[in-house]
Amino acid sequence: MTTSYESDVVAWAKEQAALIRAGRFDQLDLSHIAEEIEDVGKSEQRELASRMAVLIAHLLKWQYQPAKRSTSWERTIKDQRRLSGRRLKKTPSLAPMLTDPEWLDDIWVDATAFASKETGLDESVFPEASPWLMADVLTEGWLPA
């Protein structure tokens, strides 16, 4: 191994892949490979959380600023639903996140912060926790009252 994980992770990854392809398993950096595999799952979780936070923020904007509703907001809601749904379809093991209270709290905090920044409304205007079911949030055409 010529490149350390700490000095250049991209070069390291290419070398590790080449070692695997060559069948030189005794030369693999197994602990870092395991870490990178775990990080792939975390990355998928972060992507879904990011998309859900943007979706929920736009639903909050829709509900709390009805006079400012726009086709742009509708498009963002539709796009984030589609992309979240695609992520859940391609990675079904992410579905339990939609019922994980800690994960839901995290995305709610992110969504309300984003909605507050975008609307100028104080975060205290929004509920402390989502009043919506995630099934509704992800349902095409559903919008809060």
> Mean of residue pLDDT?
95
Oligomer: single chain
- From the alpha carbons, calculate the radius of gyration and give it in angstroms: 20 Å
Identify low-pLDDT runs. Answer: none
Distance between the termini: 59 Å
Q: Assign a percent range to the helix content.
A: 55-70%
- The count of β-strands is 0
| Biggest pleated sheet | none
Query: So how many helices?
Result: 5
Estimate what percentage of residues fall within beta strands. under 5%
Sheet/helix structural class: mainly alpha
Q: Overall 3D geometry?
A: elongated
- Would you list the SSEs in sequence order as H and E? HHHHH
Describe this structure in words.
- The longest helix is centred in the N-terminal third of the chain and has 35 residues, at 30-64.
- The N and C termini lie far apart (59 Å).
- With 145 residues, the chain is mainly alpha-helical.
- 63% of the residues lie in helices and 0% in strands.
- The protein has five helices and no strands.
Summarize the entry for a quick read.
With 145 residues, the protein is an all-alpha fold.
Topology:
Elements (H helix, E strand, L loop, with lengths): L8 H13 L8 H35 L6 H20 L10 H19 L14 H4 L8
Keywords:
145 residues, mainly alpha, 5 helices, 63% helix
